Amino acid sequence: MQSNRVTINFTIRIEEDYENLVAYLRPLQFTLKRSGELIWVNPFDTNQQLSIKPMTAGSRNYIVLYVGENKNLSAILERAIGSFENKIVMLQYELYLDNYSILECQKEIEVETAWTQADYNDRIYRLPNAKFTDIACLLMENKITFMTRNIY
Question: Which one of 51, 56, 71, 104 is most buried, by most CB atoms within 10 A?
């Protein structure tokens, strides 16, 4: 299966003053909206976007949303927030695949991974891990969603 598009939504705590964050991101082609949201759109591919928005005014917790292809994702995130002290506190990763099949995915998960199927739903898988708690993989009709609420 070939990756087509991803959506990543996470909450991150950035130990930086909001004005300093804005001053750092504006030269990187981020646009500041009235709502306080900073948005970057790839000038060569307008389907690729990154937005950073304070959860509430004065908060150091930000909602970060990335939409686009996997290509260059880590470099984009590193450039935008990598130079600040930060901690991800919630993560949701949606993966859209070409030729996606729930049955095929279930077969691959059972053979190739350490994920275990939830007793109450055959489309939900859990992964116990020392760094993550309550992490789940949900096989949905048109995408695969990975999510957690507690990251240490």
Answer: 51
